[in-house]
Amino acid sequence: MKEKTKPTIVCSAFIEKDKKFLLVFDPLFKVWRVPGGRAEFNEALEETLIREMGEEIGLKVENPKFLGFGQDHQLKHLKEGTIETSRLIMFFYVKINEEPFVDPSEAEEYKWVTFNKLKNHPNKEGALSDFFQKKPKGKVILKEFKNNFLVDCFIKFHDKYLLLRRKKSERWFPGYLGSIWRDIANKKNPYQALKLLLKKYNIKTKKISLKAVANNIFVNTKEVFNVFLFIVKVEVKPKIDKLPEADEIIWVKENKLVKQDKILDEYKIVFPLFKDNKVLFYHTKYDFDKMLKLEIYNK
Fold first, then answer.
1. How far from chain centre, in Å, is Cα 106?
2. Strand, coil or helix: what is 106?
3. Which candidate, 109, 214, 243, 272, has a CA 20 to 30 Å from the CA of 280?
4. Domains held by the chain: number
């Protein structure tokens, strides 16, 4: 019998103590991983991470820093049948001074390794390998990422989506602009940042759905961002004076959204791939507002 679990969001942490990092051995899939666990219903990512660290290593951690994400697909053959899982793992960084207590039911064994040994371990979980593959070569992760993420959303009212054009620009963008949200987003996890800004601009929502996570590199500024794209269904149309830096707004139906001449090429490609209960993962490279590359990891 083949058991398929629904795609899950997991929060895991690079735990540093005395310049070494904690690896635990997964007894089911027989791989080494960093500690973490699944997010529960209606639980913020940061809350998941803090809860899981308490359950798995017996410590209350503070101020976890978001680093990035990785995806994997696991398959395990057992006597009772086959287990198949698909996971999106959100990785955080946590520094501790106390000795952790690793729950033996969660890990058969554990060890402390240097960052380079962790990164190059030959038998680490797939999402961890995927995470490192998404990073620009030659950069040290702990220096590169400091909660560096943006949030964007497509605001939907009935069967139409909101597009806005910001001042001094000819391009159309969905909902809000991630670059405007950076100061707030860097202090929250993506869901909290989104909810905080919707509340700030008095946007009453019906449903918020994560649709895509992108790893974006800007070669002109050498910046790297993890961008979280949401679809937000609203109860009433937002007023133009409630939108930051919005010079003009239009409402378009789904089949016309990607046909707008001045919308970013990135959205023309990924928006048609948004599906119910599925998160799209992709990587882009930009030179200013010109897209040089877009690679989709799952369709």
1. 24
2. coil
3. 243
4. 2
Phi-psi region of 36 (alpha: psi -120 to 50; beta: other; left: phi over 0): left
pLDDT tens-digit series, residues 188-244: 567 777 877 787 777 888 888 888 888 788 888 777 777 888 899 998 887 766 566
**pLDDT tens column, 283-292:** 888 887 788 9
CA 69 – CA 8 distance, rounded (Å): 13
| Distance linking the first and last C-alpha atoms of the chain | 26
Same domain, 159 and 122: no
Separation in Å, CA 78 to CA 2, 29, 85: 10, 11, 14
- Are 74 and 173 part of one and the same domain? no
pTM of the predicted structure, to 2 decimals? 0.56
In this structure, the answer to whether residues 136 and 14 fall within a common structural domain is yes
Tally Cβ neighbours within 10 Å of residue 206.
10
